[in-house]
Structures are given as structure tokens and as C-alpha cells.
Amino acid sequence: MLKKLAFAKIVSIFVLSPINKWMHMETQDLQTIEYDYLVVIHPDAQVEHDVTHYKAIIAQELGAPGKAFSPVYIPLFRSSFPSKYESDFIDVLTRLSGEQGAFTVYTSRIDHVNAGSDKHNIYVNVANPRPVAALHKSILSAFELEEQGYQPHITLARGLSSDAFDRVQKQLNNRLFVRSFYCHSFLLLRKPLGSSDAYEAVHEFCFGKDDPHDGPLYYHAA
After folding, report:
1. Are the C-beta atoms of residues 110 and 126 closer than 8 Å to each other?
2. Which of 173, 177, 171, 155 is nearest to 61 (CA)?
3. Which residues contact 46 (CB under 8 A, 6 or more apart)?
4. 70 vs 55: CA distance, rounded Å
5. Closest CA to 154 of 91, 100, 79, 74
6. Residues near 119 by beta carbon (within 8 Å), at least 6 away in sequence
7. CA separation for the pair 112, 129 (Å, rounded)
8. Could you tell me the pTM of the whole model?
9. The domain at 36-206 falls in which architecture?
10. How far from 30 is each of 33, 59, 79, 213, CA to CA, in Å?
11. Are 186 and 97 in contact (CB under 8 A)?
12. Of 159, 157, 156, 134, whose CA–CA distance to 147 is shortest?
């Protein structure tokens, strides 16, 4: 009986001790950290390799080799919020992905767009944007958000000055990039808001209506 009372007293001391209160406060602080969340489609290894090759060409031309290894993906949705809401966010995306059917993504060429005063982006276009755009729309609808214009793409370089763009464009102008890959999932990435760190993978959402026989018509053509 005395041993049980002594154990109870030790537990009581532990629960009320300053170190345990500090640990509780530390957990609360971690839950309030705000993250930059990004939902993306990640291509297969072959397409990722080929995109990285063109990123390397651009990086070498601009003297920035580190840029060649930036992540390869099609962005779907981006938001920022405290990490305590992450599990709710994942629950919504899990339900959505369970109703999603798999599809094939096709690309055809390397293109570019003006992104403001003296800024240019170079990207790989998605030749069949409809299924990707539909997935993007489903995500927005799940969070009761309105569409604001969306063009599926894989970024090769972003925010290039006119001078840098002209140097790169000579090598990539009208370059074909005919590829395809089977999309049966999307990824949730995150990094601390305002950080220059790389995104880390948080969760993969596999489609509930995946048909493994409905693969791409071609993988590599140019």
C-alpha cells in the first residue's frame, strides 16, 4: 500500500513539475508554427530525369548549377497555416483523393511566359490540361475557394531577367518535350513559412479509383 502511495506521489510530482510544463508549452509552440504547404503532382522518374536535364542546361548557361536540382512537379494548390491544422487538411485531401480517378499526363514542348516587369518564366507545358485542371478545381472546391485562373505546367526557371531569358531562350526556343506519365496520386509538401529551405514531403494521397491498366500511350518521344 505504501509503495502504491509513493508511486502516486511521484507521478503527481512529474505531472506538475516545471520541466513537464515546459514540455507542454513547447508542444503548443510547435503546433503554432506556420508552414508553407504545397500540393503537387510528382512525375515518374524518367520525366523527372529529363526535366532535370533541361534545368541543368539553363543553370549552366546562367552560372547557377545549384538550380539544376530544384524539385520537379506540377503545382496544384498552395496555402499557409499553423501546423495544428495539418491533420484536418490531410483528412480533407484524403477524402478527395479517394474519389479521384487516375489519368495520364502528356507534355509536348518547352514554353515561356512574361511574369511582370522584366521577369520571365520557362516551363514545360501540359498538353492535356483538363484532368489536372479538374483535380485543381476539386481541391479548391473542397476548401470552398474560387478559381483564379490555372495553367498546369512544370517550371524550368522562374523570374529570369530579360537578359538572362534571352541567353537561355536561344537554346530552348520551340524545343519539343514529348513525354507522358501515369498520375495515380498527389503529394503534400511543406516548409516553414518564409524559409529558403527545400520542401519536405508530408503525405502521399493515392487515388481511390486507380486503374493500373490505364497507362500512358507513350513515355519518351523527343
Report:
1. no
2. 171
3. 179, 181, 219, 220
4. 8
5. 74
6. 159, 160, 161
7. 16
8. 0.81
9. Alpha-Beta Complex (3.90)
10. 5, 37, 18, 43
11. yes
12. 134
pLDDT in tens, 55-101: 998 988 888 766 667 899 999 999 999 999 999 999 999 999 999 99
Question: Which cell is 139 given?
Answer: 481541391
Cell of 113: 511566359
Which of 203, 179, 166 is closest to 38 using CA atoms? 203
DSSP 113: E
Cell numbers standing for residue 92: 480533407
Q: Which residue has 506521489 as its cell numbers? A: 9
- Mapped onto helix, strand or coil, the DSSP state of residue 182 is strand
Lookup: cell for 100: 479521384
Q: What whole-number distance in Å separates Cα of residue 63 and Cα of residue 66? A: 9
Report pLDDT for 30.
Answer: 59
**Nearest alpha carbon to residue 35 among 89, 93, 75:** 89
Q: Are 59 and 66 in contact (CB under 8 A)?
A: yes
Query: Hey, what's the cell of 21?
Result: 510544463
C-alpha 214: how far from chain center:
24
Domain ranges of the chain: 36-206
